[in-house]
Amino acid sequence: MRALPARRIATPVLCASLLLGAAGPAIAAENDSPDSSAQAAARAPVPGAASLLAQVKTLGDVGGVVGAVTKLLTDILKADNGQLPAAEATKHAEAVKAAITAATGAGPALPKTPAVPKTPAVPEAPAVPKAMSSDDKAAPADLKGDALKALQSAVDALVKAATGGDVAAVVAAVPTVLTGLVNLVAATLLGGGLPAPNLPGLPALPKLPTDAVPVPLPAAPAL
């Protein structure tokens, strides 16, 4: 086969180079267009997203626990004499445990705040003693955690009753589990950092107890 002359080969290459050279600025302009900048801005998270995600996770975790426990309760109450096969009861127990474990875990990590330069140490003022009466009670350190632990214990007792052939034990265990669910929802609403409800006509939620009673400072001596 005869080789093509170098002149005939160079002509198409030159044309392609000219086309690419002309299209280059247009491609660059497209990449730098306002639409590209708008798309990049649209992908940025909303302000305060980390805090809002933590609240969403809290509600999602509670929903997972409520769903798993209510499914267990429904199947037990529909079963003959409240008894479930061992395999089915185990499946329910594992689902509840997994949901409680997920709800116990930490929420999404919040963004780190920039380091603040250290300031010279300031001498501490003498501490003011706190007056505590015998009737004062410290608030629980973790309301939600306590509610989850109590609910897990109640569910364990219910599963045991639903596989042990004791109908009376099932009847006694079901209200305890229901109360545990209510306690979990209440603890989440009161101590989970969620927005306060604003439904018109809704009664005001009770305030959490404080761990100490404020002590008034002594009056200054008369001049």
Description:
This protein is mainly alpha-helical and 223 residues long. It has a domain at 47-104 and 141-191: Four Helix Bundle (Hemerythrin (Met), subunit A) (Up-down Bundle), CATH 1.20.120. Helix content is 58%, strand content 0%. The chain has 6 helices and no strands. The protein has helices at 6-31, 34-42, 49-78, 86-104, 143-162, 167-191. Helix 3 runs antiparallel to helix 6 (167-191) and helix 5 packs antiparallel against helix 6. The longest helix is centred in the N-terminal third of the chain and has 30 residues, at 49-78. The protein is elongated. The chain starts with 5 loop residues before the first helix and ends in a 32-residue tail after the last helix. Mean pLDDT is 74; it is low at 107-114, 131-140 and 210-215.
How far is the N terminus from the C terminus?
A: 120 Å
Q: Please estimate the helix content.
A: 55-70%
CA radius of gyration is: 33 Å
Q: What fold name goes in the CATH topology slot of the domain at 47-104 and 141-191?
A: Four Helix Bundle (Hemerythrin (Met), subunit A)
Q: What is the correct CATH architecture of the domain at 47-104 and 141-191?
A: Up-down Bundle
Q: What is the class of the domain at 47-104 and 141-191 in the CATH system?
A: Mainly Alpha
Return the average pLDDT rounded to an integer: 74
